[in-house]
Specification:
- The chain has 235 residues and is of the alpha/beta class.
- It has two domains: 66 residues, Ribosomal Protein L25, Chain P (Beta Barrel); 160 residues, Alpha/beta knot.
- The chain has six helices and twelve strands.
- The strands form two sheets. Strands 1-4-5-6-3-2 form a six-stranded mixed β-sheet.
- It is elongated.
- The two termini are 24 Å apart.
Length: 235
């Protein structure tokens, strides 16, 4: 946790907050903060700044704060990611928030098992928790937009062309096309398939929607690895 992220419900006054639970434990056990010490804080959806610890024990972290810094700007990036298996989902969602993507779409695909959509990790509160963890890691306060697209064809045919607009659309696919372009027109829409890639019908549909093929090379990468590698190259 590189940022103590304050939620609106934490506030007991305009410049004071009470925290319990996971964040309290982290500040005590990892930061090893003490009364009078300072922490980097930010208000969800708002500014960042410094907080001073007024009370810290097993029950509550009480701090006063001044928020005088803007959060880092979001990347002009929409990530369209084929829904990964549940044990990977948390890492992908947190990584998307940490990397600064403006929007994340979790998309169905042929190689996505139906059981993945029934995972408790897709519950709104679970997804939100992973997004918050990503913001804390990256010292950010603004959540990316999150969309679940359970039907591939309606999303790709009806929604995806509008997301691409006049920007750059890219679809990662093994052996699918060129390397990462050197010149990008913002905004950027990047589609990453299941491990092993999209099936050919999906790949063709994504290309018809305005995405250009993109090849990371001969290696088959895990979803979270491909995500970090591609965003690092693009931005």
């Amino acid at each position: 946790m590189n940022l103590v992220l304050l939620l609106p419900e934490d506030l007991v006054a305009p410049d004071r907050a009470h925290l319990t639970g996971r964040r309290l434990a982290h500040v005590r056990e990892v930061h090893r903060a003490t009364v009078g010490g300072e922490l980097v804080v930010g208000l969800l959806g708002g500014a960042m700044g410094r907080g001073r610890v007024l009370r810290l024990d097993a029950e509550v972290l009480e701090l006063t704060f001044v928020l005088d810094q803007a959060p880092p700007p979001k990347l002009p990036l929409t990530l369209v990611v084929a829904l990964p298996r549940p044990k990977v989902l948390n890492r992908v969602v947190a990584a998307a928030a940490s990397l600064g993507a403006a929007r994340l779409v979790l998309l169905n695909a042929w190689k996505v098992e139906k059981a993945y959509w029934a995972s408790p990790r897709l519950q709104p509160e679970s997804l939100r928790q992973q997004l918050l963890l990503g913001l804390e890691q990256a010292k950010d306060t603004v959540l990316p937009e999150l969309q679940l697209a359970r039907l591939f064809r309606p999303f790709v045919e009806d929604d995806l062309p509008g997301l691409v607009g006049q920007g750059t659309g890219l679809v990662a696919h093994p052996g699918g096309g060129s390397k990462v372009p050197k010149v990008l027109v913002a905004p950027v829409t990047l589609a990453i398939g299941p491990e092993g890639g999209w099936i050919e019908a999906e790949f063709d549909s994504l290309c018809r929607a305005g995405l250009r093929p993109l090849d990371l090379g001969p290696r088959i990468l895990r979803t979270e690895t491909a995500l970090a590698a591609l965003v690092g190259r693009l931005f």
